[in-house]
């Protein structure tokens, strides 16, 4: 091989290896962060430039951090929304508010995207100054904001992986649990992380996912998605059977742990979808679904009553 060919080959190899991380090792998420700070503007507690930098930081942290060792193609990225509403700023760079995490996944052989999980965090409290760099170390508590965001990322992985394989999200349950333990000991904002806080806070969310009492729920996620929604086009009757079986599982779990954050969050995300699936069922299927749904999700009884018409 002459010198010219060697140079061309070297450049081609260099180009491949420079591009490989983007194509072969793309990050896991396609996160969209929406930041609402209108209440802070009304209180004259912030400036738009600082908020723009904060939103960029959250987007970059969630989308550019490497959360798993798995390879994701662009079309395989997990779609998530994080809607943050800031309500108070007691001191410069100190913020309080709430956040809603929404995790979605495509349904096979369709253009439909199903919401895997939605969670409202009422304890979104942190400090941020554009001039200060935030550090994240999953093995040692560093800063509140990256720890909260890392918790959300790992919970999103739990629900996505559980929907594709039985208990597939277990490594990320453990990671989220470790983050909670680190923060419980070190965070200045205990209410979001501690067992004595809000019963729907981050501690209780991960406690549910770690508990053996919720193992049937997590195993049932595979039934709901892979054996249910993913075959809806080819086998709608089989989908309804899988969904009804999963509702029976939820009923059993709820008897052990009533009003849990995981089951409440499931129905926050799924009530309309459940209705649309089950309204196509036989009268006896609709009646069975109605009885389970109104007992587990009574706040939406009016919607579920249509199943009996």
Explain how this protein is built:
It is a single chain. With 309 residues, this protein is of the alpha+beta class. It has a domain of 96 residues. Helix content is 51%, strand content 15%. The chain contains eleven helices and four strands. It has a four-stranded mixed sheet, with helices on both faces. A hairpin with a 5-residue loop joins β2 and β3. α5 runs antiparallel to α6 and α8 runs parallel beside α10. The longest helix is centred in the N-terminal third of the chain and has 22 residues. The radius of gyration is 22 Å and the shape is globular. About 6% of the residues have low confidence.
Give me a quick take on this structure.
By secondary structure, the protein is an alpha+beta fold.
Structural class: alpha+beta
- Number of helical runs? 11
Q: What do the pLDDT scores average to? A: 91
What amount of the residues lies in strands? 15-25%
Largest sheet: 4 strands, mixed
What is the alpha-carbon Rg in Å?
A: 22 Å
Query: How many E-type strands?
Result: 4
Pfam family, one: DUF4835
Protein name: DUF4835 family protein
Organism: Dyadobacter sediminis
Top keywords for this entry?
309 residues, alpha+beta, 4-stranded mixed sheet, 4 strands, 51% helix, 15% strand
Give the helices and strands, then pairings:
Layout: H1 3-24, E1 29-36, H2 38-42, H3 48-64, E2 78-88, E3 94-106, E4 113-127, H4 144-164, H5 170-186, H6 202-210, H7 215-225, H8 236-256, H9 261-278, H10 283-296, H11 301-304
Parallel strand pairs: 1-2
Antiparallel strand pairs: 2-3, 3-4
């Amino acid at each position: 091989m002459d010198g010219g060919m060697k140079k061309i080959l070297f450049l081609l190899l260099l180009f491949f290896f420079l591009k490989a991380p983007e194509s072969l090792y793309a990050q896991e998420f396609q996160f969209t962060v929406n930041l609402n700070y209108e209440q802070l503007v009304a209180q004259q507690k912030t400036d738009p430039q600082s908020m723009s930098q904060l939103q960029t930081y959250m987007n970059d942290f969630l989308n550019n951090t490497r959360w798993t060792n798995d390879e994701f193609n662009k079309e395989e990225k997990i779609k998530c929304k994080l809607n943050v509403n800031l309500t108070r700023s007691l001191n410069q760079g100190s913020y309080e508010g709430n956040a809603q995490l929404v995790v979605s996944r495509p349904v096979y052989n369709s253009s439909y995207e199903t919401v895997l999980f939605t969670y409202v965090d009422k304890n979104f409290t942190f400090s941020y100054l554009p001039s200060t760099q935030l550090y994240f170390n999953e093995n040692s508590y560093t800063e509140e904001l990256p720890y909260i965001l890392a918790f959300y990322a790992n919970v999103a992985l739990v629900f996505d992986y559980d929907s594709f394989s039985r208990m597939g999200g277990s490594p990320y349950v453990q990671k989220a649990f470790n983050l909670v333990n680190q923060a419980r000991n070190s965070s200045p904002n205990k209410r979001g992380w501690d067992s004595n806080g809000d019963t729907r806070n981050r501690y209780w969310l991960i406690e549910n996912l770690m508990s053996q009492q919720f193992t049937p729920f997590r195993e049932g996620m595979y039934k709901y998605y892979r054996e249910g929604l993913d075959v809806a086009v080819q086998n709608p009757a089989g989908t309804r059977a899988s969904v009804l079986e999963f509702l029976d599982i939820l009923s059993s779990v709820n008897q052990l742990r009533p009003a849990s954050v995981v089951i409440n969050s499931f129905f926050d995300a799924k009530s309309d979808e459940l209705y649309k699936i089950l309204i196509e069922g036989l009268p006896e299927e609709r009646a069975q679904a109605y009885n389970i749904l109104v007992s587990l999700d009574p706040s939406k009884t009016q919607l579920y009553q249509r199943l009996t018409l």
